[in-house]
Q: What sequence folds into this?
């Protein structure tokens, strides 16, 4: 599998950390993984305690949403979600009392079923960006042999997992150990890039007693954090759709910490997010409550530099979206906000068929050929366009500055649309 | 007031651009241009074979097509492409119009007359590039199109001017270029006939052999290759597979004919194979994009080159192969995609091995047949032994019929050579007598293959030379060396 080294820009935010936990209002977006089929449990005027469930996503991937503050439900408001769309949110006014509902007793020895129920009720989803409910990964008949903790963070600029790892190494190791015990997992790996020395040291300092947990240093290349590539690098095995086929579960480092909180009775209501970029005066990692509008956080960390043309990226610069404004709502699967100067838009030139996009493609498909025939469905199926993970390397590498990924996205739509049409007729 | 720009990512882009890649390509070509100046300008000048113009002729020869292709592109773009709404300045900046001209200058024989060179450069850009819609859309390599026109139309003119030889080589080397030499000699050839006339294999490697202006030095091409791979500019798989295939096939052919490693080395170091494989075959626009396709492309190029070298009298197989394979790039990419499937790739691999096997077998039978069969123009009339001496009465077909001779050999050496009867044109034959060629033949009997014929009586003197060679072979077969 190909992959290349990309300039990381991580040093900007690497070493600074603050906590911002006093938002005036929080907004709980009624959306999970593009699914808006959600039941709301509160109405205007209700008082909610911190950690109380306010809504639940229906269907097979059912997952609850919790409030991260105590206070009064003001109503509903459209707010910008990091996917770029405006989403209806529950607006809650923070009374700053951090009042917690009296919780049930915390059980020490959980069975596997109880564990799954716990992380499901804590609303834990993949925090690396995919937002896939975590409990589904453990709800399997197959034997889980290996747990891989993904702390690779291959996107440039983002250092949220790095910061969390350094701070909570011990809690994370303890949680991994518990997960292994509950699910009878034999071996766990913490995958980290080789140049994250401080992170590695923090873990090596406390790892001594955990003999079945190993820190696995992986090459510094993009997209090393992609599940398939990571599993291949560590286990030397490949799978078709899901890693569980070969007995592997992959969890993001932040997700593991969220499980740690869940096991102590706290649902997923906080996360670390990297606010960085050359337009941020003091780039840093901020621990924020889920539902916080980010504009407030940026102001709280001394704001933005003056510049007319801004690109505001939610997520990493490779796979993230550029937003219409910086007031995006923190969700569990948002790991960064990057504010960059708008460079003169690269002009696309003629493709000279150098084949670089093919050489770098980690999914092993042919972006340039897909681009050439992005409306020809038959050819696209032959080119296995569905394998594309939209990592963006083809656009990154293109010497003619063609945004190849956009063509591939269009091609994917072509295939999807036509397949849907066929199904209807 | 701040303005947020909604764009599509990724927001990191690689530093490399097409322009930078083309710049690296030119950098890689510079040593080759300088070497061509040294070999074709400086060396003849130092030996007083050419004047001041001749000294700078190679540089001029490379500069002219470079300028002409640029100008042609400029004019052509104004006339043909502007309708498409292209901005001329922007188009010129990203059409890299100098490159085909630069290549054209390097792949032609130095003795191509300048007007023909101009004509070829114009055609290269016009027919090779502009009619397809400019940079990135052409099917054939423009420089190769230009060369094709020049070589097919004006081969005679160029040959009469000295062909592939520079002024110094014209005087020092009596043979043709290494590969055209290969097509004229009988059988598979030997070190003495293939390599020795040009020095050693080292000369082939450094490039001090006759050939097109810039394509002789394998060493410099190799440096350029390493540089371009390092800078990630070229599709290196094509070069490796191409050279590798030619090496493999010729090594097999050589092996079957009892020739050692020098033979495949000779084959890959001559005919501009390195230059072609590294610069021309990897032209991004006209080569496959898929990884598997690039490997296949290289292998097919190698096979085609070997076919052209052994089965046709057209020795410069490399550039012709590339031009031919340009046509199949689309199909090869299709094959490349299909060969991601394991079974299909296995099938493809097997068929390639079979093709190669048949090819080697064919070449081997073809050439060993020629090699073993006694020259049909030669006949042994009488043979008897007197003591240690063997006296032959033999005949060889000359210009006017058989030439009958008596040859006396003792201990593998010719003692006596006498012409008993002949029907050659008296005026020609008198030259042979005047030059005392018979004595030369006896004197130089150890170096006969390289021995020059008598100019003015080529056919007759060649017949005599062959007669002696054939007699010696006859002797060796019965009495040993």
A:
């Amino acid at each position: 599998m190909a992959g290349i080294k990309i300039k990381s820009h991580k040093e900007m935010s690497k070493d600074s950390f603050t906590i911002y936990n006093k938002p005036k209002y929080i907004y709980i977006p009624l959306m999970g993984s593009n699914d808006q089929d959600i039941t709301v449990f509160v109405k205007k005027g209700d008082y909610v305690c911190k950690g109380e469930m306010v809504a639940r996503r229906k269907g097979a991937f059912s997952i609850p949403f919790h409030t991260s503050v105590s206070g009064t439900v003001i109503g509903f408001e459209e707010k910008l979600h990091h996917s770029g769309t405006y989403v209806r949110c529950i607006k809650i006014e923070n009374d700053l009392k951090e009042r917690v509902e009296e919780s049930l007793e915390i059980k020490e020895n959980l069975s596997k079923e109880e564990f799954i129920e716990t992380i499901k009720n804590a609303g834990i989803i993949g925090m690396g960006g995919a937002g896939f409910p975590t409990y589904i990964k453990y709800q399997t008949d197959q034997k889980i042999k290996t747990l891989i903790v993904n702390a690779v963070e291959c996107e440039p600029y983002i250092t949220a997992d790095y910061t969390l790892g350094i701070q909570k190494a011990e809690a994370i190791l303890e949680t991994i150990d518990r997960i292994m015990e509950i699910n009878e997992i034999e071996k766990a790996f913490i995958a980290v890039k080789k140049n994250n020395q401080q992170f590695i040291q923090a873990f090596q300092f406390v790892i001594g007693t955990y003999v079945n947990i190993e820190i696995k240093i992986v090459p510094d290349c993009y997209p090393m954090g992609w599940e398939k590539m990571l599993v291949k690098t560590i286990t030397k095995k490949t799978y078709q759709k899901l890693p569980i086929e070969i007995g592997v579960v992959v969890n993001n480092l932040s997700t593991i910490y969220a499980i740690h909180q869940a096991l102590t009775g706290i649902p997923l209501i906080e996360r670390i997010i990297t606010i960085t970029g050359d337009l941020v005066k003091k780039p840093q990692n901020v621990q924020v409550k889920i539902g916080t509008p980010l504009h407030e956080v940026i102001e709280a960390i001394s704001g933005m530099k003056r510049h007319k043309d801004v690109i505001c990226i939610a997520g990493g610069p490779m796979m993230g979206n550029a937003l219409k404004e910086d007031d995006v709502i923190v969700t569990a699967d948002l790991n960064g906000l990057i504010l960059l100067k708008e460079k003169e838009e690269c002009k696309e030139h003629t493709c000279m068929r150098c084949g670089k996009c093919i050489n770098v493609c980690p999914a092993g498909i042919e972006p340039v050929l897909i681009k050439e025939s992005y409306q020809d469905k038959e050819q696209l199926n032959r080119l296995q366009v569905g394998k594309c993970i939209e990592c963006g390397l083809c656009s990154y590498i293109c010497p003619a500055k063609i945004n190849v990924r956009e063509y591939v996205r269009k091609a994917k739509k072509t295939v999807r649309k036509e397949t849907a049409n066929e199904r209807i007729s | 007031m701040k303005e947020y720009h909604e764009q599509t990512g990724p927001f990191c882009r690689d530093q490399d651009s097409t322009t930078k890649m083309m710049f690296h390509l030119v950098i890689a070509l510079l040593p080759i241009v300088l070497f061509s100046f040294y070999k074709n300008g400086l060396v003849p000048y130092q030996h007083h074979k050419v004047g001041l113009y001749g000294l700078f002729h190679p540089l001029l020869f490379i500069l002219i097509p470079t300028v002409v292709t640029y100008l042609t592109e400029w004019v052509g773009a104004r006339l043909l492409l502007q309708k498409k709404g292209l901005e001329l300045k922007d188009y010129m900046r990203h059409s890299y119009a100098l490159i085909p001209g630069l290549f054209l200058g390097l792949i032609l024989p130095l003795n191509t007359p300048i007007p023909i060179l101009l004509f070829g450069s114009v055609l290269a850009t016009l027919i090779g590039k502009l009619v397809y819609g400019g940079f990135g859309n052409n099917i054939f390599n423009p420089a190769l199109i230009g060369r094709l026109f020049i070589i097919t139309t004006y081969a005679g003119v160029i040959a009469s001017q000295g062909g592939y030889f520079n002024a110094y080589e014209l005087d020092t080397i009596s043979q043709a270029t290494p590969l055209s030499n290969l097509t004229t000699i009988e059988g598979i050839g030997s070190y003495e006939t293939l390599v020795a006339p040009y020095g050693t294999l080292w000369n082939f490697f450094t490039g001090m052999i006759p050939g097109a202006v810039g394509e002789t030095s394998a060493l410099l091409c190799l440096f350029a290759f390493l540089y371009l791979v390092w800078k990630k500019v070229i599709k290196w798989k094509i070069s490796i597979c191409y050279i590798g295939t030619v090496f493999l096939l010729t090594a097999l052919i050589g092996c079957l004919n009892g020739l050692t490693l020098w033979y495949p080395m000779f084959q890959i170091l001559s005919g501009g194979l390195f230059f072609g494989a590294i610069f021309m075959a990897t032209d991004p626009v006209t080569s496959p994009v898929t990884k598997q396709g690039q490997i296949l492309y290289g292998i097919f190029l190698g096979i085609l080159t070997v076919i052209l070298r052994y089965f046709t009298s057209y020795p410069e197989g490399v550039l012709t192969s590339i031009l031919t394979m340009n046509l199949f790039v689309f199909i090869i990419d299709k094959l490349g995609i299909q060969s991601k499937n394991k079974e299909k790739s296995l099938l493809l691999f097997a068929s390639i091995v079979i093709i190669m096997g048949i090819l080697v077998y064919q070449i081997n039978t073809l050439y060993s047949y020629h090699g073993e069969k006694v020259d049909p123009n030669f006949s042994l009339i009488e043979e008897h032994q007197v003591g240690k001496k063997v006296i032959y009465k033999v005949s060889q077909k000359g210009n006017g019929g058989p030439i009958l001779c008596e040859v006396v050999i003792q201990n593998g050496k010719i003692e006596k050579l006498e012409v008993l009867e002949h029907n050659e044109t008296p005026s020609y034959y008198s030259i042979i007598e005047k030059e005392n060629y018979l004595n030369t033949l006896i004197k130089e009997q150890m170096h006969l293959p390289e021995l020059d014929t008598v100019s003015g009586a080529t056919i007759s003197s060649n017949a005599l030379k062959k007669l002696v060679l054939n007699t010696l072979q006859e002797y060796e077969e019965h009495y040993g060396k």
The first helix of chain B runs from residue 18 to 46. The interface with chain A takes residues 1-14, 16-18, 20-21, 94, 134-137, 232, 235, 284-285, 287-291, 294, 333, 337, 340 of chain B (CB under 8 Å). The radius of gyration of chain B is 27 Å.
